Amino acid sequence: MKRFPVTLLCALTIAIGVTGWCQEAVPETTVVPDGINDNFRNPELDVDEWLERFEVESREVYAARDEVLKACGIKPGERIADVGAGTGFYSRLFAKKTGWDGWVYSVDISPNFLQHIAKRATDDGIENLTTVLGTDVSIRLPPESVDLVFICDTYHHFESPQQSLSSIFRALKPGGRLVIIDFNRIPGESRDWLIGHVRADKETFRDEVVDAGFEFNDEVKVAAFEENYLLRFTKP
């Protein structure tokens, strides 16, 4: 089989239209903590350190990867955007699931993560994967180019959620799916770190996605999840 190098996608600039919003002042709890993404933008980011955090069985979303894959409902030949791909373990699983006729776009704001993903994919013989350097307002994918957008423990990191959701909405094909996994922020129950790190609760995040034009489908109960939840949406 002919091998093609995994490359960093140089996307054409996509004009970002900002939808008009009629809303009340944003409560303080929905403000993204200052510097939440500084570690990922740091050119000295040590990928090995994050591998030890992300790809371990003690992390819920890693331990539950089989259940999560099932909830994504991936079909052979689909094109998938893994937004906030991190070390890329879900990207690699998606690439195998969608097969050679499909494609995976690993989107992240960290060049170091993307370099790791590209090298690991090449080493593993994964040829249907492209890395994409996203921004704080866009996933930088062409309109109607993907069937599924997957966001795992990353939505709360969106610094401009309305604009990011707008770019995701454009990138999805009509009928395309959006899967979001995030932390359940429950005052009085959740860990102090989680309360300070995650800006809002599940209902607020769900409403933001619906306000961006998506239809809410359901919440999938994942047996291994204690602090996380999984929501599924569709682009009409």
How are the secondary structure elements laid out?
Blueprint: E1 8-9, H1 38-41, H2 47-54, H3 60-63, H4 65-72, E2 79-83, H5 89-98, E3 103-108, H6 111-123, E4 129-133, E5 146-152, H7 161-171, E6 172-183, H8 192-197, H9 202-211, E7 215-220, E8 228-234
Parallel strand pairs: 1-4, 2-3, 2-5, 3-4, 5-6
Antiparallel strand pairs: 6-8, 7-8
- Global shape: globular
Question: How far from one another are the termini?
Answer: 38 Å
What's the total number of strands? 8
| Main pleated sheet | 8 strands, mixed
How many individual helices? 9
- Uncertain stretches: 1-29
Helix residue percentage: 25-40%
Q: Quote the beta fraction.
A: 15-25%
Assembly status: single chain
Rg calc: 17 Å
Encode the helix/strand succession as letters: EHHHHEHEHEEHEHHEE
The secondary structure category is: alpha/beta
